[in-house]
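Look over this entry.
=====
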Amino acid sequence: DPGVREVGGMVWPILLGSAVGKVSAFVIQLLGSYLEEGAISSLNYADKLFQLPLGLFVAGITVPIFPLLSEQVATKAPERVKATLDFALRLMGFLLVPATVGIILLRYPLIGLLFEHGEFTAADTSRTAWALLFLCLGLYAYAGRDTVTRVFYAYHDTRTPVKISVITVAFTIGLAYLFMQWLGVGGLTLGMTVALVINFVVLIWLLRRKIGVIGLARTAGSLLRVLGVSAVMGAVIWLVDWRLAEAVGATSGGYGLRLAVGVVVGVAVFLLVARLVKMPE
């Protein structure tokens, strides 16, 4: 059947891309083995927390927009494709930029509450928080890359994203090795983040060559607004958590209280300021 053959031809690059991603993760783990004891565990725990907002938000956006994009491509409506991409990227920013700020500021109580038990010590919490700091900086780039990739898939182009992924693996390994010389386990995650950003930017550039001017001015304006709102939210979270950290100890109860108060205050402040500046998202 011609349709089965077409799908078969599009599937193998995606499978190859998934395998390449695993190679990158394996090499990062290998590099971590040359650092201090516990570095590999810190990488694993940081990655689990990094995946949390991605699992909550990204799949919930990229999965339903894919058939929509496919329909728009099939009906030869490029302007609708561009509008859908703009909407998805703006919504990603509205959700993930404040999530990035919140996780970075509350990473110590978050890690302490979840993992600081038994042989997992305060030093392990500190090392995992260091890795998570740089990893979280790539949250939006990760989500944006997955979103733009879906547009290529809608155009039945599964090879271009995979080619870029293969090249990105080399960047990831090289940058991770370079940064680990100065930043240790944080350098490994910083290398991953920088490579993710490069991947996202290159895909945007290639998509622009494929479908013409995308018109991301609205997306950029939305990101600037959400960065400003998130900065206000972050300042309030930092102040509240700083005072709480002095009042409660480094115990599970203390970590839980700091995390709960920080999340509630952060969400409330973000939504309030977003309404005040009339963010359409």
About this structure: The mean pLDDT is 92. The CA atoms of residues 138 and 194 lie 7 Å apart. The radius of gyration is 20 Å.
